[in-house]
Amino acid sequence: MNQVDIIAIDLAKNVFQLHGATRTGDVVFRLKLTRARLVDYVASIPPCTVAMEACAGAHHWGRKFQKLGHEVKLIAPIYVKPFVKRHKNDVADAEAIAEAALRPTMRYVAVKSADKQASGMAFKIRDLLVRQRTQTINALRGHLTEYGVITANGTQNLPRLRSILESGESGLPEPVRELSELMLAHIAHLSDPIQLLDKELRQRARKDDVASRLMTIPGIGPICATAIEALAPETPTFRKGRDFAAWIGLVPLQNSSGGKEKLGRISKMGQRDLRRLLIIGASSVVRWAIARGAADGSWLKQMLERKPRQVVIVALANRIARVAWALITNGGTYRIGASAVS
């Protein structure tokens, strides 16, 4: 068998497709293995490059293969898709991964440590519970609207909603009141772990040096700071803060040709959780600037005078991301007037 320079693995739950190739792209082997045999087979091959799509389980397998002495390269699925020649199947997918990994300009995803994945899991579980609570609150408000009970949205209005149900003056049928109490109990059941996770994330943000420095930036709180540290790759992955903002998806879509630049809405091609948190943080800064007034001569004041509010929010989120990258890379804390955020 020829020298294997790269092994591309199409990941799955139980059956994995392997594609071995030389550095020139010549096929050495195509093989299908079960989960139990995968590690032993890869361990029997001399150290080489192992390429996989950056999907569920990829970081786990990446850590295992790194311990075996292999160089692991994770590729975003969107960059692998153009190399699939015709029909989609496991053999074609594995070959496409190998082709993509052999490109000299390909971009890769860094393998995350188990601790970093754990930090990201805490944030994602909190996000899931918040969405479930919001969904339940909106469903309850929608059902009660059919009986003429109107309440404002938000968790802060739940006590008023409960008082309406307990007063008996709403004229709601007994089954409706019982079901509403059931949904309120479910909301309370979801709120308890959310509060615990909020407390844990705030404590982690205060103890962590990077997160505490990020929180000095206007628009970044404990949740956003811990999310950036947990979900973002290492800063050396990006040459500059502009690349980091582009990875998050806070740059305009381009449709340029013939020397004519055409820019559209933001790409939304990056990390959507960080993008959402940064936009939420930027919107709070913009609301504060509109209500209290931005500093004279500041970038934010000039933008608010010339651009629509939503455009300013997205532009500010982009700048916050770039400032965050600079603080993580170079150290220090945010200083008023030191960047274009002010």
Structure notes:
It is a single chain. With 342 residues, this protein is of the alpha/beta class. It folds into 3 domains: 6-101, Nucleotidyltransferase, domain 5 (2-Layer Sandwich); 114-207; 210-255 and 264-330, no CATH class. 54% of the residues lie in helices and 11% in strands. The chain contains 13 helices and 7 strands. The chain has helices at 35-43, 58-67, 77-80, 90-101, 114-145, 158-167, 174-207, 209-214, 222-231, 241-248, 272-292, 299-306, 309-330; strands at 6-10, 15-21, 27-34, 49-53, 71-75, 252-254, 263-266. The strands form 2 sheets. It has a 5-stranded mixed sheet, with helices on both faces. Strand 4 (49-53), helix 2 and strand 5 (71-75) form a beta-alpha-beta unit. Helix 5 crosses helix 9. The longest helix has 34 residues, at 174-207. It is globular and about 80 Å long. The N and C termini lie far apart (62 Å). The model has no long low-confidence stretch (mean pLDDT 89).
